[in-house]
Write a structure and sequence with these properties.
Layout lengths: L2 E4 L7 E6 H4 L7 H9 L3 E6 L16 E5 L16 E2 L19 E6 L8 H14 L5 E4 L17 H8 L2 H4 L2 E4 L3 H4 L6 H9 L1 E5 L9 H8 L3 E5 L5 H6 L5 E4 L3 H13 L5 H11 L1 H18 L13 H4 L15 H12 L22 H17 L1
Parallel strand pairs: 2-3, 3-4, 4-5, 6-7, 6-9, 7-8, 9-10, 10-11
Antiparallel strand pairs: 1-2
Helix pairs in contact: 3-4, 3-10
Length: 388
Amino acid sequence: MPCLIKSFTKSCPGLVTFTYNEMNSVLFKKKKIKNFLKNNNEWIFGIHLQGSYERLKKFPYEDWQNFILCYNQNSKYLKNISVEKKIDVSCQNFINIYNIETNKKYWDLCIISRDSEIKRISYTVKLIKKLLYYKKDIKILIIVPDERAFGFFNTLDKNSYFNLIPKLFSNDELKKIDFISSNVNSFGNFSLSEKTIFKFLGESKYTMINSKKEGINRTLIQGFCYGTKAIVNNDLESEIVDMYLNSENSIFISDDLDDSAKKIVNGLNKYVYSNKLMEHFRSIFSNEISIQKLKNYLEKLLIHKGYNFSGEWFLKDLSTRLCGHGNINSFQIYYNESYFFDWFDKARNVQNNFRSEDDFYSFKVKDKPNFYIKTLRKIKDLLKKIIK
């Protein structure tokens, strides 16, 4: 589902963005959806790019795409898109700056991750075990949401975070780590407030990710904005490496657990707080600066199309809303066209007290592929295995 940027009025279209994944979904290949996007006069559509896309060949541009939110206007992936249709602002640019003390550190390491092998959580847990061996007084905070559903038949992979923690760590080691794992089914996706997360980051020397593929990772950028340095794998495939990481703000580790633990301990022993680093990243990623930049850009777009500025602007919480991250739901819809059109019916009549797309739905939206799509996926997966 889209992110509502500006409401629709009789004299001015509304502004919405879709995610890159939605744009490439099964839903957007349906004739009814294509016709709506091409022929609708009530809305101006944009695309929000997230994740790592430089490795892709060419952006699949279509005429209904009026603007693209990206992290780099000069991206090779977007070279076929005219400059006026691109703005180098995306979800990670909207970081709220709170009055939080950042120069007094309590934790050595703050890890914000998911129980997923895409995030290489098992490697992270094993690395923490090594760190406890080399630095007995290390202080670590781990925040991993608990996505397990309630019931008697829940099964977890042996490398699941929730299996590895009790298996690998002794009681004494567990006491040295602070764990936060709220169940999303009970408390929603945002059980910790944004300000609380930023306070934790501000009180930590380093934050760490161990995934091998990322876009402009939001946790790292949030950390930089609150005086926290980064730890990443040295073969991380991400645009963030060339654009923002260096030996002064980051420690580069490898798949060698022993060597990586030693590098981190060495970095902790030499750690120096940098206010200059923090202010530099705030000048790029501050919510206040980015909101104004985006609004100015979109106002120029409306002027160019001959419209006035009537309608309400909804520019709060764009760090999560642009990517479709709701508290109850993931608002990226890939299959169900009834949800798609229902969203636009709701958006067309939105009130000025609208806060986020969570306001539209008080229930869990179930967007699932039909039997035909499921079967095709299984056949494709089977063919991939045969080819390998």
